[in-house]
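FIELD: query
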Amino acid sequence: MSSTSQTSSTSQTSSTSPDSIPGQRPKAGPQYCGERSDNPTEIFWIDYPERAPQSMTDSNNSGGSIDDNTQSINECYSDERYVGDVEGVLDQEESDIIANYNHGIAYYEGNDIPQNYIIAFEWFLRAASRGHTDAQDKLGYMYSNGKGVPRDYSKALEWYQLAANRGYAKSMCSLGFLYEGGLGVTRDDSKAVELYGRAAKQGYATAQCNMGYMYENGKGLGKDYTRAMDWYLKAADQGYARAQCNIGFMYERGNGVDKDYGEAVKWYQKSADQGYPTAQCNLGFMYESGKGIRVDYVKAVEWYEKAARQGFPRAQFNLGSMYKNGQGVPKDLTKAMEWWSKAAKQGHTKAQRQLAKHTCTLYKVPKQINKSKSYE
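FIELD: result
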């Protein structure tokens, strides 16, 4: 095993991204629950009486307010000649709302038209302001990620809350993520657990995995590896790659289960085959170190490279180390430094140190000149 390669882990999570919570040994922490629905055919819930947040409605953008819709229906009731048309008005309202949402999807994804998040946001706003739950969730996601609008976690929280109030699992999960990270709201792990739990009980895989993470790390409740594994397995049974990776980590470390490198490799493989970079890097490490599988530097390089090309810094560092040591690839310090440089730019401290150390060798620079490097 290379003396400089980093050990396996699960994916990291940060305050603004589901997979970047910092730590010496990164975890596959709570996942942001937005972007795409897991079920493209799910029913869109429409509930006319509930208003959109006042701070977000825009009469110039919306295709009609809830009051406008109510007025048109009341006008039918006020004249007995139109009582029979009420059902038709409701059907048309529902059709219009779904059409607004579908227009938003078309612009959001660039389906047969140029992708345009600003226009997509306007169409989602029309649908969301009239009670379309999935559109409300989409607006929450766009505010959270600054797509089509400036990033604003407070507004994201308001939209997620509207959809979550209707029992919409994906929005509950995203709302939990905001509470866990203290984004747009005071940090509250207990509230995050409550929201993750409600979504998880509906079978939402992301929330199930997040519940596993909270139990594994004792966030918002007592640390319990057995319960963590239970939730990870529920998500993994749905093919959820991050949960599969976390199960592999539990087996590798013996957390809540007997340590079993073979089982760890099996679960990392399931996740890696779906393109999950943390699992790909972890699988590379198992091949490099011979844990649960025969040492195979070529395979290790293959998996490190898959993750490294997705921008995963630990894999970039490990791949650089393989080139430096000539393991699975011809020894090549120039390529090693190229990969270390990619990792170093993402703040990987070991990569920064390796760059500083080997710059002297590669460019024949006297070592004393390099002492001023900020990452020495």
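FIELD: remark
Residues 308-376 form one domain.
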